[in-house]
């Protein structure tokens, strides 16, 4: 199939609820999946898939005697179209499927889609400390980065996204008075100045623009049954500097509780960088200087990651129905940005 051709998918103009969508998930699977149409709801079991704070996902499993594989029904979080272009996401995801990335899309409905259920498990947060897992992640990241042609542009789209988000964040009004008070304490002029400072430093590094996942936390990396890794959930993906996925991934060692004492030490950063450069198709082993440069790109990009996800969290605080303290999360991300700002920006001096 040509990369410009998209497979025809079963489609329904139906919107599923995000609260306890068990019966709706069964109905949409029977309606849209041709091999499931002879089934009834009693033939299906639904379980919640936890871990995400953007969407609601459930696994739908037919009875064992039906000889059908389980699927995942992904229901987009409320108003997430304000920060994610869902049509563009689907277009990109279908092309990534052709290149062996992500769960295969089986059908779409108004506020979500049905995907294949990947046989494997999410990489545990603790496994990020294992050298063999680190190397696999870095190589898979490099393979993903090589698919820039999927987006058809070498322009870095990251700054357009962050510019759009800060405009939205400045205009937010939250229903919770305490959270609104926290929001009003944010100095968005300083926040924009911080964005400008990090952007200028990244531009000075002349880092290559790649196809970036932009959200490589451990929950978006699956260990398949054959031992290979699969990246999932590309909704925040776009063109970005190669260091962003590394720096963002380093931030995600902290987990959602933002324990930044877990940020990887220099030795682990260098292991990632070396494996990444080898995975990028280098004919020879990368030099120490190449490794050092990529580590600098990653650490400066980790600052951009904090600013990015801080704004995202503020917008989510206004619109998301998921039970998560987004405002507190935004505050923790910005606090860590300020703590590491001078250290990481200083790394770029003389590069």
TrEMBL record:
**Main EC class of this protein?**
transferase
| Functional pathway | Phospholipid metabolism; phosphatidylethanolamine biosynthesis; phosphatidylethanolamine from ethanolamine: step 1/3
Q: What does the record list as GO biological process?
A: phosphatidylethanolamine biosynthetic process
GO terms under cellular component: cytoplasm
Q: What Enzyme Commission number(s) appear in the record?
A: 2.7.1.82
Q: Name one Pfam family in it.
A: Choline_kinase
**One GO molecular-function annotation for this sequence?**
ethanolamine kinase activity
Write down the InterPro entries for this protein, in alphabetical order.
Kinase-like_dom_sf
Family under the similarity heading: Belongs to the choline/ethanolamine kinase family.
Report what the protein is called. ethanolamine kinase
The organism named in the record is Tetraselmis chuii
């Amino acid at each position: 199939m040509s990369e410009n051709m998209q497979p025809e998918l079963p489609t329904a103009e139906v919107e599923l609820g995000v609260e306890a969508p068990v019966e709706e998930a069964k109905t949409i699977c029977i309606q849209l999946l041709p091999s499931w149409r002879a089934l009834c709801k009693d033939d299906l079991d639904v379980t919640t898939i936890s871990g995400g704070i953007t969407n609601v996902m459930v696994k739908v499993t037919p009875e064992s005697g039906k000889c059908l594989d389980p699927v995942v029904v992904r229901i987009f979080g409320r108003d997430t179209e304000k920060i994610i272009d869902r049509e563009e996401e689907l277009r990109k995801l279908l092309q990534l499927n052709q290149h062996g990335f992500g769960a295969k899309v089986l059908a779409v409905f108004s506020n979500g889609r049905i995907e294949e259920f990947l046989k494997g498990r999410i990489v545990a947060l603790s496994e990020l400390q294992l050298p063999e897992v680190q190397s696999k992640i870095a190589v898979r990241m490099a393979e993903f980065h090589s698919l820039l042609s999927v987006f058809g542009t070498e322009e870095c789209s990251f700054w357009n996204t962050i510019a759009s988000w800060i405009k939205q964040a400045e205009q937010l009004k939250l229903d919770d008075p305490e959270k609104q008070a926290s929001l009003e304490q944010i100095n968005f002029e300083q926040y924009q100045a911080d964005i400008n400072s990090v952007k200028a430093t990244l531009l000075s590094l002349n880092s290559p623009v790649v196809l970036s996942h932009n959200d490589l936390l451990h929950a978006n990396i699956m260990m398949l049954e054959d031992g290979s890794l699969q990246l999932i959930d590309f909704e925040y993906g776009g063109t970005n500097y190669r260091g962003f996925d590394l720096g963002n991934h380093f931030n995600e060692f902290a987990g959602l509780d933002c324990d930044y004492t877990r940020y990887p030490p220099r030795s682990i950063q260098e292991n990632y960088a070396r494996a990444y450069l080898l995975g990028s198709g280098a004919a020879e082993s990368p030099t120490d200087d190449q490794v050092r440069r990529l580590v600098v790109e990653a650490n400066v990009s980790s600052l951009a990651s904090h600013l990015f996800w801080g704004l995202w969290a503020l917008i989510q605080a206004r619109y998301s129905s998921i039970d998560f303290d987004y405002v507190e999360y935004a505050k923790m991300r910005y606090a860590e940005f300020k703590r590491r700002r001078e250290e990481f920006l200083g790394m770029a001096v003389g590069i």
